[in-house]
Design a protein that fits this description.
Blueprint (H helix, E strand, L loop, with lengths): L12 E2 L19 E2 L2 H14 L7 H24 L1
Antiparallel strand pairs: 1-2
Helix pairs in contact: 1-2
Length: 83
Amino acid sequence: MGLPQCDWSGAIRTYAQRKGPMNQDPHTSSPAFIILSPDDITVRAYQLYLERGRVDGFADDDWLRAEQELKARGEDAERRRNS
């Protein structure tokens, strides 16, 4: 049973509704953080597991790598949006 292919550009959700120092970096116009859905991280971690040939024992590594990849994609999208 495989997972459906995902469009990762929509998988990242940024939180930029409130304005001010709570979520805004005072030196840039970018949000100070990006919110990732646990479901999005789970899907990407599972894809990494499949890419590795379903080798067990790397769940934590897959989760952290998935989280880092999705965060980086969100930051890249934010930079493109602001340029």
